[in-house]
Design a protein that fits this description.
The protein is α+β, with helices and mostly antiparallel strands and about 180 residues long. The chain has five helices and seven strands; from the N terminus they run H-E-H-H-E-E-H-H-E-E-E-E.
Length: about 180
């Protein structure tokens, strides 16, 4: 079976596949039920979408029979090119998870830019650690102490309006701290 390019899929199919990728990359797992709930589709349609995504991106997801879910594959490589602002909006507010074929503004507008936007691969690692409630090894750069390695247990993202932080328990200092992503 030949896999259709994204441009030949319907918009609802692209939206569902984009949702699959967002859940895998930033949450670390997806279940058929997640698709069924989000898009009000039947089990068979959710299974077809997962199978199509697996064909389009071999190595991006693996089935975990114990957890009855699809998990991030070892050879993950994104199919969709999401802007960091969209991912942050999806993570923070739970909407905007559709993937338009072409980015097009409906109304011309300007908004202030952030001081920095986090690297999506780093953000994905942090959000998976939050969701899976597991510790994370990081390199921390401080003006006073320089570069150090830390083990943190992240539990929330914080948007200050200019920077994104991760709130975590720092095992080295035995304190809760905020770290800029």
């Amino acid at each position: 079976m030949q896999v259709e390019p994204l441009s030949e899929l319907t918009q609802p199919q692209r939206d569902r596949l984009a949702f699959v990728e967002l859940r895998l990359r930033f949450i670390g797992e997806i279940r058929r039920q997640d698709l069924m709930t989000r898009f009000a589709i039947q089990s068979a349609a959710a299974s077809r979408d997962l199978a199509l995504y697996k064909e389009m991106a071999p190595g991006n997801l693996d089935y975990d029979p114990k957890g009855k879910s699809y998990v991030l594959g070892p050879a993950f490589h994104p199919v969709f090119d999401f802007a960091p602002e969209r991912v942050l909006s999806w993570l923070a507010q739970g909407f905007g998870d559709g993937e338009p074929l072409q980015r097009k503004a409906w109304v011309a507008s300007e908004s202030p830019s952030r001081l920095t936007l986090p690297d999506l691969d780093v953000l994905a690692t942090v959000t998976r650690a939050i969701h899976l409630q597991c510790p994370l090894g990081i390199e921390y750069h401080s003006i006073s102490s320089g570069r150090t390695e830390r083990e943190i247990v992240p539990f929330a993202l914080i948007d200050t309006g200019l920077l994104w932080h991760v709130r975590a328990f720092d095992r080295k200092s035995q304190e809760f701290r905020d770290f800029v992503i």
